[in-house]
Amino acid sequence: MNLVGFFRDSSLEPRFWSAYLLYSTLIFLVLSINQNYDDLSRAFYFIGVLPAILLLLLNEGNRRVVKQDITFWLIVLLLTSLYLTVYWGREELSGDVIRRYSRWFFITLVFATAMYFYGFHKLNELKVHYYILQLSAAIAAVSAIAIYFAEARYPQRLVGMGLLDHPILGSGVLIMVWVMSLLGANLDNKKDIISTVLSLTAVSFFVFLSQSRGPIIATIILWLGIIWLIKTMKARVLVGFFSTFVALGLYLFLDLGSVIQSMIERGSSYRFDIWSATLSNMNEYFWFGIGVATDFSHTQTGMAVAASVGNIVIDHPHNLFLSMWVYGGIIPVLLLSLVFCYIFFRALQLRGKKRDSVLIIFFTVLALSITDTYKLISSPQEIWLIFWLPIGVLCGYLNAQKRVLV
């Protein structure tokens, strides 16, 4: 969809606030991954994304959309159930804790709602969405890599600017921003194929140098997905050869064997020990959880996890589904599972490129959720981009596609 068509489409009333949401979201995403001043990206959230969605909800048609969609209410229930655990958690309930989590709950819910309407109004199909996300991801990756080598930090783990300043979550943010551009790409077009492959190459280089296994697996999924999305066999073969050539070239030129050896020596980073110890203490959190405001390391489960990995302090279970269970009990983990199941089975009902692109985004979210995503209620930071950005957009977009199919 092009921008002219977007403004001519009468189904997008009120058009001005939809456009305001589009550009506010894009500016927020670009600033989040390309600069170190968190307050600047937060400012664009509060003066852009938040008022845009509140004003969109003044429209009766938009309110009707959320009233009738079960997925939206699953998201609301998931966030609400997590927020309520603050009140029966293990930490002392001070006024500051209540205010902080109340604020985080509200702004996270607003962001998830904004991303829902971003998808419902198909803003993720616009070319401006595609080009800005691909370009900003590539610029963030290339600039971080350039600084990394200029400061002679190789073969240490690479981190970038803004929300890319963590070797695991940062890689996840960069991957997610890139993959969310896919529904705006036309991979029957040579120009889009070239820009997609080049930007993914930059992102892949960043992710590999970050030495994070989960994001690396997600990147492999992306390459396989892009090759699948390209319909002509000639272009598929060329992209396959290009990716292989780049991988071999980097391996030989940078002596990446030392990086690979470093990842091997880290083993599973205690993931299986953490999960096993967490599940072994299920009686502490099974029904109602420990509370999202509770310090995990101070609980019976947290101390068991620390003992299992050599008395190293671990601050969360390093798995999204386990985290939901530990912090919120059985209800949030069931709600989270329902959201994932809904997206997957609704995606299967689509046809062609849309189905394939949605599934690629879905499996990327799943790959990044297995090891490190947690809590889901926060101020504007990595979790928003790794989880609520794709989940909100996919739920809204699939609702819009459902209406088309009906």
TrEMBL record:
<keyword id="KW-0472">Membrane</keyword>
<feature type="transmembrane region" description="Helical">
    <location>
        <begin position="130"/>
        <end position="148"/>
    </location>
</feature>
<dbReference type="InterPro" id="IPR051533">
    <property type="entry name" value="WaaL-like"/>
</dbReference>
<feature type="transmembrane region" description="Helical">
    <location>
        <begin position="168"/>
        <end position="185"/>
    </location>
</feature>
<feature type="transmembrane region" description="Helical">
    <location>
        <begin position="101"/>
        <end position="118"/>
    </location>
</feature>
<protein>
    <submittedName>
        <fullName>O-antigen ligase family protein</fullName>
    </submittedName>
</protein>
<feature type="domain" description="O-antigen ligase-related">
    <location>
        <begin position="202"/>
        <end position="335"/>
    </location>
</feature>
<keyword id="KW-1133">Transmembrane helix</keyword>
<feature type="transmembrane region" description="Helical">
    <location>
        <begin position="383"/>
        <end position="400"/>
    </location>
</feature>
<dbReference type="Pfam" id="PF04932">
    <property type="entry name" value="Wzy_C"/>
</dbReference>
<feature type="transmembrane region" description="Helical">
    <location>
        <begin position="16"/>
        <end position="34"/>
    </location>
</feature>
<feature type="transmembrane region" description="Helical">
    <location>
        <begin position="357"/>
        <end position="377"/>
    </location>
</feature>
<keyword id="KW-0436">Ligase</keyword>
<keyword id="KW-0812">Transmembrane</keyword>
<feature type="transmembrane region" description="Helical">
    <location>
        <begin position="40"/>
        <end position="58"/>
    </location>
</feature>
<feature type="transmembrane region" description="Helical">
    <location>
        <begin position="215"/>
        <end position="230"/>
    </location>
</feature>
<feature type="transmembrane region" description="Helical">
    <location>
        <begin position="237"/>
        <end position="254"/>
    </location>
</feature>
<dbReference type="InterPro" id="IPR007016">
    <property type="entry name" value="O-antigen_ligase-rel_domated"/>
</dbReference>
<feature type="transmembrane region" description="Helical">
    <location>
        <begin position="70"/>
        <end position="89"/>
    </location>
</feature>
<feature type="transmembrane region" description="Helical">
    <location>
        <begin position="192"/>
        <end position="209"/>
    </location>
</feature>
<feature type="transmembrane region" description="Helical">
    <location>
        <begin position="324"/>
        <end position="345"/>
    </location>
</feature>
<dbReference type="GO" id="GO:0016874">
    <property type="term" value="F:ligase activity"/>
</dbReference>
